[in-house]
Amino acid sequence: MPWKFVHDGKTYSERDLTLGQAERIEEILDTNWGQIHPIRTAKHAVVIAAVMASDALGRDYDSVVGEVRGSNMLEFIDEVGTEVEDTPDIYTDGNPPEAVETPTARSSGP
To answer: Is the pTM of the predicted complex or chain greater than 0.85?
Structure first.
């Protein structure tokens, strides 16, 4: 499931990560894109947050990285999560389950 985190009140998601950002993160961390996750190490958290925030804010990476480094570690970790995907968990013969309509309660009136 895609990761997400909050920095300075804004939510950033793996779904929003561009190939260019992933490439910059790979270069800075000397890793591959399969390893990019903000909870992996403090360095991953700082670099990912700084790359994504600097692009979103239209600011230079170096000006944002210091702010990110000043973030409280436990607060940052508390804000990291995963996005729930709207896909079924159970499949039968490779097919998702059929949608089932559930009756709604209706008021019979006074």
So the answer is: no
